[in-house]
Design goal:
54 strands; 52 helices; alpha/beta; 7-stranded mixed beta sheet; 29% helix; 12-stranded mixed beta sheet
Length: 1925
């Protein structure tokens, strides 16, 4: 912002609105008028524009104007360039490109002592030219100390120049004015985190203070877009490209100041990409800690200086940060934008405190080189002691003055400054998406919005940086975005700089507008206007703070508008509560625990103990305990307890039951979702997971280094039975054996992960699942740092190269908080995320769950329901005491103070329970309520069952203090057998006393004498206080007996979403919904809350309905005059679960509550008599309730006249109810379905229950995890309507991993993502059952892999086999090969035995006997599913396209020598007389298979397919080409014969139809394909077989001719081919073994063999050329081996045949057939005298493939394309009728018609098997009821003897010339027998009838002529029927 704009308002609309708003505020009659800017900016009513955008773009123009006079420039003539050199703009005269955009990714050599700078060329205003300049001739940060002259190198050619004039000529600047380095060398260049060379800070050539100040405050604005992007994410501190001697200081440069002795040496070493800024004292300590490690011991010096130290020779570090200034924050500073208190961010801030901090000497000054001497601020002595607060100073705009004096009592942070800078970088974000450059929020606007935000805060509320960021973003968007869009629509051609003419607020208006905004906050925010500098305002503020003038002021905003063109500001936090919270928020969680430990070690906390010793007027607590013990009251209590425990030992509780291994439906559903994602990975085209190659599953589960979590997962694993199911253990293992599958992530995990990797390498066919449970626990980058911390171990082990690249390792991350794994650099694909079904969108209702999950959202619903008690509360009494003590002990950490207060409350509450009722005023009602129930609950159960109170203390030392103190108090009071106190530390085992250990054994029915509980789940029903310690929960599950979750001591300052939600996740609960009659209450109403005054009898049930059924009600809170606290604001206590109290009337005034900030003594006494009476009633009511628990059936509520009357009424009602119930109910069972009550710190409670504009709790807008940062401060908010998937995409867009995150190195090269293909993420709420889900996933994955290795095999017995009895033995049993002469002597078995032909017509033969039962499948059962069985695939199986193991890659087309799909198309033509035309086929031959063919020349005309010689022997190959006709099975056809052939070489040809060629070529690129002619697209399998056979014979002739030229005789060429179905999957061989006694018959067994062995065995048959066809039987699990009594059979062959194309030259397949073509061909071959031999020792297994094949032919009407069921009777019609024509081949219609109507056509043949139908030259299926006798009309053919036989019908189909009238007359028929003549057309039909003289013996009628239901274009078939006369 320049001064030329000062005082000018360019937008009259804004001016009018502004002044109208000011006037309205001034005239307001209210006490606190509404601040002006709530209307202007926070509600976004107006659209205003800023002037900041474009300033950086016009920087050089401004500089020119300020440095030059107003006179016209003097023309300058440059020296003409040498002839022939390059003069192109952006290139040097040597022709080298110098443009920054071209060199950004190049590796440039920079001479030592030189810096890369950017030069501006007038002819290329949009580019910078890269130059290397000697840094001695460049200025320092103050604009001084630059040597005169110039020395620079051309970065292109490397030439050095001593004069800038020559240099400017060389780089073609083409100047019109005198060259000046000050004018044209504009920017430093640096390499950003992506390694890209980018524009950095301006080179400061002037020494004017204002200019330097502007440079300092505008670091972000002057940066390049790349730099701006780095500011929006984790600001990547980059270095100017300078090569220097690291030990030499360059003249004119600043060096690291020596602040104090040893400080410089303790600074962390500089690394690439980082800078060494000036540290504040806490930054120094942070650096020292980083360097020394976490194990350093704190020094004796305990002071903590917190601001910049003494600087005598100040200057920048050796490697300068981009835009560096001494006020710039440390590298981590810009990352600290989550909250002014560090909310949602756990990163280190300026004031990262610890006890081991160096002390600066008093009086030392903290100087800045950019400030004039004298601008110093002296911090008053004893500031912390006098004010009891350590003020926090936030840097704002401009430079912070020097601090000197008592600097250890203040803290300085740059968090607010980082927020300001990122908001000014906002327009750059929008510019990346194509929006015109617009102005960011001005400095003045930022300050005003900050003031207004502070005014809005409550007195005890901490400011959150998220709120301020959202205000900035909303203000900027609503003020500019609409205006920009309107401008772009109306003025598209104007320059965007025109937008820079709007000035919302001027510098002079800023102070009074800010004061006006702060005038309504009762002095909680004070604005200080400085006339000269910030130093004056800061000095006045510190003085006023010491003088007590700021007691009611929480924030002081200091504004200075005097010395610069921009306002300067800073914020001083003076409120005690806010300052402490903000100071402590600058610790990371680990540093917070370290600070607490330091205070305990150094004895600082001893002052608290001394203070508490004077707590009671009655005396010291310890003395009271001693007195109590001496009085014998403890013995009384102990004896009472012992007597009760002795009584309980004999009793039993029928309601107690524990279910640890119950699997819920939703867990199975999630397991199936995981399985589906695994299958999706396997099905993807990337082939990253080959599930088909795995036959087994093994796993390893990684858990955090918590012994409890480890044992918990082991217990789940042991109970799940997964180890037995996966076959990892043979029998039920012990828990000890199950431990080998679970690994704690400690130092011993390395050995186990190495073993795991070795196992995966040794077992490539085993799928290894690596489960990373609680995956958010450690996301630090490896390798593991030295020390006892495990940080980085997960990255080192799980992200190692061996696991990432292993093809058989699948990693599953399981977490409740996946946000840290969902960043821009995540390794997990969003498609590989599985989210637990959400109750919000009713997904859970789909699974019929008997439980309802009760988590964070349900806890929050209970606070808004308006019915009953909320489950989420805070304790205002405890908060008041803690706040008072925090003011009294300002030097102690609040965690120490709060812990000591809570321990004291617990101790006093135990004393009150034991009879010291006068002490009840020294504890809170909440604490008293918990311990009262804890002590008395076991008395209500005959077994002594009770409940658990969880006390969460994150600090282990404080937890130890609490444990020891409470144990001592318990023992003094004699309560050691009433309840147990357990210290829950994840690194150690649980310790339980002997008495309670015996109780647990009895309850859990454990017989092991050495058993001890190892998990919290095993503490079920044990009355205990579990002190749960550790920085974070590590996945520990809690028992269902958990009743109270005391989280009052969790860290309330370092707020992150993961940290908050995992603490609240401890209270997550599964509520059983089976008990409909007695609904579970969400809260025990014995707990105190002011809500009880207005509650009703059924309030518990109403809360359950509200909370568990997720009713979609409005989330608006109802107005009420209380908070969800219990003690200080309570006016009465409801003392029983079912007690009655009167409803609080609207005019009823509650009792006076405690003051929010009482004096110490008042706070410690917790109020006066009023509160004491309240506590009295609480104790009495609680004791009465525990003694007399009530039933859920109480009387109607009656209005009470007073509280005491109400209490008495409640007691009487309870006693009455108890007397009616007649028995006590177990307290554990009564509370089983009540989720635990959660107590939170007030600060956390306020954050959690507040809702942002997206409808979600404000905690969801916090930084998701400590290891990530926001990509931009101006991001949209999460919406309540977002699903888990949408939330994942949100975090993937808006979060970046920090350098310490394990994903920070996961940067893709040239890709937009770098997802690991075999990683999955399972996320779900805490305690919802994820462990059981992923264990079920392991089980079903194993079952699926087994199922993938199994297929459905047809398993059917041979049909009509029993009728073939009494046959003699021809070949000796066990014969390997048949003898041709013996086989020829065997009779041919005409009967079809293949079970797939169970529904066809039987073939008549001599001695034919048909079973009386007929077909096993009736006519109506034809389409029923055939019998199958599941069989595991062997290693010799054939596979479909889904199989792609490593061995198959080359076979399937992944040969590296040949490119995928590289194949050629070859035409092959031959003549066939029967078709009357030439047949042209096409071969698609891959390059890798061309050696199987002969070409006229390489790449020339295809001549033939090479055939081997009969005499050749190749043990690694087969000689016969394999032809597989297929249709509709491009994916599922079993064409991968690599394993079936056992790797042997073979020629496999797929025979496909033309229209399917492309899809088959896509799936099988390395297979040879034979493409049928177009006319066969609608043909059946008969056409394919016909063409294969004819092609093979033609090829045989060609090969004989080709090899005859080589001297080979024709009969030596191999004449066989293999015809195989596309569903043949495995082959078996029968083996005989002698019996044990040696006398009985040998035992036959089958085993799987390769197809190579089967074919080689057949091909090796002696005299194989004499056989026409060879085949094998169909496999059956029943009786298959029994058929091998005769090793060879002469019968029908199916499925896979070895066909001799030479002998079968004159026997053709019927090209028109669709069904039974193999039966027809077998009969033709036999009648031709050929030998058909079936090898009974071999069998083929056929896989059931439900798609493709004959199912591709659908008979449908031509009228519509919709497939409809057409009855078989409509397949034919009368000629010339108007019948509906069908869209199907006529031959198919005929075959289907005869199959279904054969019994009607041939009525005399029905079950008349002795009089079959005579079928000449063909076999047609007439249905199973009609027997067919096949005869051939060829001369010398072999036919069935028919002498004396009467036939019941005659079938003539396509008769040729061999069929004559005499041949027909040689057969005799029954009277009335049916004739059926079928021809191609009506003319042929008449000619056939006349030629065969059929009218002589057969009578025909005109109506007996039919045709298939085809139109004329489809050439229907015609047939004529007649009767024999």
């Amino acid at each position: 912002m320049g001064n030329s704009y000062a005082g000018q308002l360019k937008t009259t609309r804004f001016e009018e609105v502004l002044h109208n708003s000011i006037e309205a505020s001034l005239r307001s009659s209210t006490v606190a008028p509404r601040p002006v800017f709530s209307q202007l900016y926070l509600e976004a009513e107006q659209q205003i524009t800023s002037v900041r955008a474009g300033r950086a773009e016009n920087e050089e123009e401004d500089e020119d104007e300020s440095s030059e006079s107003s006179s016209p420039p003097i023309p300058y003539l440059m020296k003409p360039p040498p002839q022939g050199c390059c003069t192109t703009d952006g290139f040097c005269q040597s022709g080298k490109d110098l443009r920054l955009g071209s060199l950004s990714l190049e590796s440039l050599e920079v001479p030592p002592g030189f810096l890369l700078v950017g030069a501006k060329s007038p002819s290329l205003p949009e580019h910078l030219l890269v130059c290397a300049v000697d840094r001695r001739f460049l200025p320092d940060e103050s604009g001084r100390n630059a040597l005169l002259g110039f020395s620079g190198n051309c970065i292109g050619c490397g030439e050095n120049f001593r004069y800038f004039t020559e240099f400017s000529n060389h780089i073609n600047l083409k100047l019109t004015t005198q060259p000046k380095k000050q004018k044209h060398l504009k920017y430093y260049l640096f390499r950003n985190t992506q390694g890209t060379l980018a524009k950095g800070a301006l080179i400061c050539w002037k020494g004017t203070e204002g200019r330097v100040r502007q440079l300092t405050s505008n670091t972000c604005l002057n940066a390049s877009p790349a730099e701006e992007h780095s500011h929006l994410g984790p600001v990547a501190s980059a270095e100017p490209l300078c090569v220097l001697d690291q030990n030499a200081a360059a003249p004119g440069l600043y060096t690291v100041p020596s602040v104090a002795a040893g400080l410089t040496s303790d600074l962390p070493p500089l690394v690439s990409g980082t800078s060494a800024p000036l540290y504040s004292s806490r930054e120094e300590h942070s650096a020292q800690q980083t360097q020394r490690g976490s194990g350093t011991q704190p020094p004796q010096n305990t002071s903590r200086p917190s601001v910049i130290g003494t600087i005598t020779n100040s200057g920048p570090p050796k490697k300068r940060h981009k835009g560096w200034s001494p006020e710039s924050p440390s590298p981590a500073d810009p990352l600290r934008k989550s909250q002014l208190s560090g909310a949602s961010n756990g990163t280190k801030t300026d004031s990262e405190a610890s006890g081991s901090l160096p002390q600066l000497t008093p009086g030392s000054t903290h100087s800045s080189p950019l400030l004039t001497p004298g601008e110093t601020v002296t911090v008053p002595d004893n500031l912390l002691t006098v004010c009891r607060t350590q003020p926090v100073i936030f840097k704002g705009h401009g430079n912070l003055p020097y601090l000197c004096g008592n600097v250890k009592d203040v803290i300085v942070s740059s968090l607010l400054q980082s927020c300001y800078r990122s908001s000014q970088a906002l327009p750059r974000v929008y510019e990346q998406y194509g929006t015109s450059p617009v102005q960011p929020l001005s400095v003045e606007m930022q300050i005003l919005l900050t003031v207004y935000y502070l005014v809005q805060l409550a007195p005890d509320q901490m400011p959150l940086i998220e709120d301020l960021e959202q205000i900035f973003m909303r203000s900027w968007r609503e003020s500019h975005l609409t205006e920009i869009r309107q401008y772009q629509q109306t003025h598209p051609q104007l320059l965007p700089q025109a937008l820079a003419q709007v000035l919302p607020v001027t510098l002079t208006q800023l102070p009074w507008l800010a004061k006006l905004a702060a005038s309504s906050c009762n002095d909680s925010v004070r604005v200080v206007d400085c006339a000269h500098s910030l130093a004056d305002g800061l000095t006045d503020t510190l003085r006023a703070l010491v003088e007590g003038q700021l007691d009611k002021t929480n924030f002081v905003v200091i504004i200075c508008t005097a010395k610069s063109r921009e306002a300067e500001s800073c914020l001083v936090v003076t409120g005690r509560h806010q300052a402490r919270a903000l100071a402590e928020s600058m610790y990371t969680p680990a540093e917070c625990l370290q600070e607490i430990s330091y205070e305990l070690v150094t004895g600082k906390a001893a002052a608290l103990g001394a203070f508490f010793s004077t707590l009671c007027p009655e005396g010291d607590v310890d003395s009271l305990l001693d007195k109590f013990s001496a009085d014998g009251k403890a013995q009384v209590g102990l004896s009472n307890n012992l007597s009760s425990s002795e009584g309980t030992d004999q009793g039993s509780c029928s309601e107690f039951q524990v279910k640890w291994q119950e699997i819920r439906p939703i867990q199975l559903a999630v397991a199936r979702k995981l399985l589906s994602h695994v299958c999706a990975i396997a099905d993807s085209s990337s082939q990253n997971l080959d599930l088909g190659s795995f036959g087994k599953v093994e796993f390893l589960i990684f858990v955090p280094p918590s012994e409890v979590t480890f044992q918990q997962v082991v217990m789940h694993l042991w109970n799940s039975g997964i180890l037995l199911e996966l076959g990892l253990e043979k029998e039920l293992v012990s828990k000890k054996a199950a431990e080998q599958y679970v690994v704690k992530l400690d130092l011993e995990a390395r050995e186990k992960i190495n073993t795991f990797i070795q196992m995966s390498q040794r077992n490539p066919y085993t799928l290894f699942i690596l489960v990373h449970d609680h995956a958010h626990w450690d996301m630090s980058s490896g390798p593991l740092a030295p020390g006892d911390s495990y940080s980085g171990l997960v990255d080192e082990l799980l992200n190692c190269r061996e696991i990432s690249e292993a093809p058989n390792i699948l990693t599953l991350h399981v977490t409740s908080f996946p946000f840290g794994l969902q960043t821009q650099l995540t390794r997990i694909s969003p498609y590989n995320e599985v989210h637990w079904p959400s109750a919000y969108n009713n997904d859970v209702d789909l699974y019929h769950e008997s439980t309802k999950y009760f988590g964070l959202s349900e806890l929050l619903d209970s606070t808004r329901s308006g019915h009953g008690l909320p489950l989420l509360r805070y304790d205002s009494s405890f908060e008041a005491v803690a706040m008072s003590l925090e003011e009294r002990f300002p030097r102690l950490h609040s965690g120490v103070i709060r812990t000591y207060v809570l321990i004291q409350h617990y101790a006093v509450a135990l004393m009150v329970v034991s009879g010291r009722s006068q002490l009840r005023k020294h504890t809170s009602v909440e604490t008293l309520e918990m311990l009262q129930g804890l002590v008395s609950a076991p008395q209500q159960c005959p077994c002594g069952h009770g409940h658990m109170v969880l006390l969460r203390i994150p600090s282990p030392p404080l937890a130890s203090v609490a444990f020891e103190r409470l144990c001592r108090v318990r023992e003094r009071l004699g309560l050691q057998n009433r309840f147990e106190i357990i210290l829950g530390n994840g690194s150690s085992e649980l310790s339980v006393g002997k008495h309670f250990l015996e109780q647990l054994k009895m309850w859990l029915k454990i017989q092991d004498a050495n058993w001890v509980p190892q998990t919290y789940l095993e503490l079920e029903a044990l009355p205990c206080i579990l002190i749960f310690t550790g920085m974070d929960p590590q996945g520990e599950s809690l028992p269902r007996s958990l009743k109270y979750c005391d989280l009052r001591l969790i860290n309330s300052t370092c707020l992150m979403r993961t940290a908050l939600e995992q603490e609240l996740g401890l209270a997550a609960y599964l509520v059983t919904t089976e008990q409909c009659g007695e609904r579970a209450a969400v809260s025990d109403l014995s707990e105190s809350d002011p809500e009880k005054m207005s509650s009703t009898d059924n309030e518990e049930e109403e809360v359950v309905v509200d909370a568990l059924s997720s009713v979609n009600r409005s989330p608006v809170k109802r107005q009420r005059s209380f908070s969800h606290d219990s003690a200080s604001s309570s006016s009465s206590l409801k003392t029983s679960t079912c007690s009655d109290t009167g409803a609080e009337k609207p005019g009823h005034n509650p009792l006076p509550s405690q003051a929010p900030n009482p004096p110490d003594s008042a706070a410690l006494k917790l109020g006066q008599q009023t509160q004491q009476q309240v506590a009295d009633r609480a104790v009495r009511g609680a004791s009465e309730e525990q003694a007399n628990p009530c039933t859920p059936h109480d009387g109607q509520r009656r209005p009470s006249k007073s509280k005491s009357a109400s209490s008495a009424s409640s007691s009487s009602t309870r006693n009455s109810a108890m007397s009616q119930s007649g028995r006590e109910r177990c307290s554990w069972a009564r509370c089983l379905n009540r989720p635990p009550v959660v107590f939170l710190p007030k600060a956390v409670y306020d954050v959690v229950v507040s809702v942002d504009s997206g409808g979600l709790p404000k905690s969801t807008s916090f930084l998701p995890h400590l290891s990530v940062s926001w990509a931009s401060s101006f991001r949209p908010l999460l919406s309540k309507m977002m699903t888990c998937t949408e939330q994942s995409l949100y975090y993937r867009q808006w979060t970046l991993p920090k350098q310490t995150h394990m994903d920070s190195s996961n940067r893709a090269e040239g890709r937009t993502d770098n997802f690991h293909p075999r990683r999955l993420l399972l996320s779900g709420p805490p305690q919802v059952g994820k462990t059981g889900a992923y264990m079920q996933f392991l089980g079903i994955l194993s079952r699926m892999l087994i199922r993938l290795m199994e297929i459905d095999i047809y398993d059917e017995e041979d049909i009509n086999f029993s009728v073939q009895e009494g046959s003699e033995q021809y070949h000796p049993q066990g014969a390997a090969w048949p003898a041709a002469d013996i086989l020829e002597s065997m009779p041919f078995d005409y009967t079809v035995h293949d079970p797939k032909y169970d529904d066809i017509s039987p073939v008549f033969s001599p001695g034919f006997a048909f079973s009386n039962e007929g077909s096993s499948r009736k006519q109506d059962d034809v389409y029923l599913r055939r019998r199958t069985t599941r069989i595991k695939l062997s290693k010799y199986a054939a596979y479909n396209s889904y199989h792609h193991c490593e061995q198959c890659h080359q076979y399937m087309g992944f040969n590296p020598r040949f490119q995928l799909y590289e194949s050629t198309l070859h035409a092959f033509t031959f003549s066939y007389l029967m078709l009357g035309e030439e047949i042209q086929l096409y071969f698609i031959i891959p390059k890798s298979k061309e050696h199987y063919f002969a070409f006229s020349q390489p790449g020339g005309q295809l001549e033939s397919m090479r055939l081997p010689l009969t005499s050749s022997r190749n043990p690694d190959g087969i000689k016969s080409p394999i032809f597989t006709p297929t249709t509709g099975r491009h994916e599922h056809g079993l064409f991968n014969l690599y394993h079936a052939m056992d790797g042997a070489s073979h020629l496999h040809v797929l025979v496909v139809k033309e229209y399917e060629m492309a899809v088959y070529k896509k799936y099988w690129p390395n297979h040879i394909m034979l493409v049928l002619p177009t006319i066969f697209n609608g043909a059946g399998v008969g056409a394919a077989h016909f063409l294969i056979k004819e092609l093979s014979y033609h090829n045989l002739e060609l090969e004989r001719h080709r090899q005859a030229e080589l001297g080979v005789r024709p009969q030596e060429v191999w004449p066989f081919i293999v015809l195989a179905d596309d569903s043949c999957v495995m082959w078996n061989a029968v083996h005989s073994s002698t019996s044990a006694d040696g006398n009985s018959a040998p035992m036959l067994s089958e085993r799987n063999v390769s197809l190579k062995r089967v074919l080689q065995h057949m091909e090796a048959t002696p005299g194989v050329a004499q056989y026409g066809l060879c085949g094998m039987r169909k496999w059956s699990s029943r009786g298959g081996a029994a058929q091998c009594r005769e090793p060879f059979s002469r019968c029908h062959l199916h499925d896979l045949v070895l066909l001799n194309v030479d002998l079968t030259q004159n026997v053709q397949y019927n090209q028109h057939r669709f069904t039974c073509d193999d039966v027809d061909f077998n009969l033709r071959a036999h009648s031709a005298g050929l030998l058909l031999c079936r090898f009974n020792s071999f069998s083929v297994m056929k896989k059931q493939i439900p798609i493709g094949g004959h199912r591709t032919f659908i008979i449908k009407s031509k009228v519509t394309d919709v497939p409809t069921t057409v009855p078989a009777s409509q397949y034919t019609c009368a000629p010339d009728s108007k019948h509906t024509f069908l869209s199907a081949p006529p031959q198919l219609l005929l075959e289907k018609y005869l199959q279904h109507s054969g019994q009607r056509l041939f009525p005399l043949s029905l079950t008349n098997h002795g009089h079959p139908v005579l079928s000449v030259d063909c076999y047609l299926n007439l249905g199973p009821e009609v027997t067919v006798c096949y005869v051939s009309s060829r001369p010398h053919s072999v036919n069935v003897g028919s002498a004396g036989m009467l036939f019941s019908g005659l079938l003539l189909y396509g008769c040729d010339s061999f069929v004559t009238a005499g041949f027909i007359k040689s057969f005799h028929f029954l009277k009335g027998a049916t004739l059926c003549v079928i021809c191609q057309d009506r003319n042929s039909l008449r000619q056939t009838v006349g030629r065969l003289e059929l009218e002589e013996e057969w009578r025909f009628r005109l109506r007996d002529e039919f045709q298939t239901a085809n139109c004329r274009e489809d050439k229907p078939l015609f047939f004529l029927t007649g009767k024999h006369v």
